[in-house]
Design brief:
Layout: H1 3-23, H2 28-37, H3 67-75, H4 83-101
Length: 102
């Protein structure tokens, strides 16, 4: 297991737990599930050929990882009903961007 792999999946699974637990104590389980469900955004990887390429940067390559999609995720921060999902998707994009740098 590489350091890149450990960082990537820690940010996808462990960081959302801490965000949910410390910032949404009352509903942390529901919030954590929303964070985990936000990983469905990776279904757009199925449109790529090959589906997985280790050194490919997801940001602006896959449709749901595009700059336009990220702008919509950012706009979701301004609406109470979409805020948690927007935070989850933006954390996902930040994690994938960090992966591009490593």
């Amino acid at each position: 297991m590489t350091l890149k792999f450990s960082i990537h999946y820690s940010l996808h699974f462990i960081a959302p737990f801490f965000i949910a637990f410390f910032f949404y104590k009352k509903n942390w389980k529901k919030v954590y599930l929303i964070f985990i469900a936000s990983m469905l955004v990776d279904l757009d990887h199925l449109l790529a050929t090959p589906i997985f390429e280790e050194f490919r940067c997801s940001i602006n390559f896959h449709p749901l990882h595009s700059y336009i999609a990220i702008a919509f995720y950012f706009l979701g921060l301004f609406f109470k009903k979409t805020r948690i999902l927007a935070i989850a998707l933006l954390l996902h994009m930040a994690t994938d961007y960090l992966d591009c740098l490593l």
